[in-house]
Write a structure and sequence with these properties.
The chain is of the alpha/beta class. About 35% of the residues lie in helices and about 20% in strands.
């Protein structure tokens, strides 16, 4: 039995979101048990409870040896406010767990990876289980947690370490105490709801702050707002431009992003995807 604790380090979900995941797990993954922390449904302004409440819930899930994994319920914004305090208070049980999330929860994944705590993975979150398309992405996470690698990003080769982040999250975490050493990694980035000029600005920042990485892959860039004037480059042309400027190999597209096609990317080295 794989036992998964779910907490919300950033923004809340609803009981309906939880019920949708529980029904999916019961029907498709009877060997898996999901437990939602009550904090997932609380709200204090924008957040799923105060910083202290979110921190406490995360630590209760991470430090409990009864759970095999901690799955972040939703992104939104807020995990950066508790990430450093969380990793400093995690025990040996926390170091043996798997942690899954993406988007804003990349702050936590970065801090965990930097401190060599557990196995971190970019993957879709329980909030997506209410829609059929969302369940496709959620299903990949549950399959991976149960030993099925078919939902991993296809380019993972088990030889070169990799990470995956939302672009703005990676840009914000760089040059902070949460930033892991990504030397020699394939870095995958995706973005949602940012103007093309803002994407260019984020790549400008990263081009000057990333160490010597093995290469960069660009995931989905979705819901790009329309600007009053065309930027003049596509998102891929922007990525290629800044990779060239920084002397970083551009490795093409990755199957990650705020879409139903979002694939799982374990941080570090991962087994190759299993043939389907």
């Amino acid at each position: 039995m794989t036992k998964i604790a779910i907490c919300a380090p950033a923004t809340p979900i609803t009981r309906d979101h939880a019920a949708a995941l529980e029904a999916m797990v019961a029907e498709e993954f009877p060997q898996t048990e999901v437990t939602f922390h009550d904090q997932c449904f609380e709200r204090e302004g924008h957040f799923a409870g105060s910083d202290l409440r979110r921190l406490t819930a995360l630590l209760e899930c991470a430090n409990d040896p009864a759970f095999d994994a901690v799955w972040f319920a939703k992104g939104g914004y807020g995990s950066n406010r508790i990430a450093e305090a969380a990793v400093s208070r995690m025990n040996e049980a926390a170091r043996a767990k798997t942690y899954i999330g993406f988007s804003d929860c990349g702050y936590l994944l970065a801090a965990l990876y930097r401190n060599d705590i557990g196995q971190c993975a970019h993957g879709s979150m329980p909030v997506s289980a209410r829609s059929e398309n969302g369940r496709k992405a959620v299903r990949r996470v549950l399959q991976w947690l149960n030993g099925d690698n078919s939902g991993l990003e296809p380019s993972l080769d088990g030889k070169t370490p990799a990470v995956a982040f939302n672009l703005i999250t990676l840009a914000m975490v760089s040059n902070t105490p949460m930033m892991p050493d990504l030397s020699g990694h394939v870095v995958m980035v995706e973005e949602v709801s940012e103007h093309l000029y803002a994407i260019d600005r984020l790549f400008f920042h990263l081009a000057g702050s990333l160490p010597r990485i093995a290469g960069l892959k660009l995931g989905a860039v979705t819901d790009i707002p329309e600007n009053y004037v065309e930027f003049g480059q596509t998102e891929e042309e922007i990525a290629q431009f800044w990779c060239d400027r920084a002397g970083v190999p551009y490795l093409g597209r990755a199957e990650i992003g705020h879409t139903s096609a979002n694939r799982v990317v374990p941080f570090g080295l991962a087994s190759p995807p299993r043939a389907t």
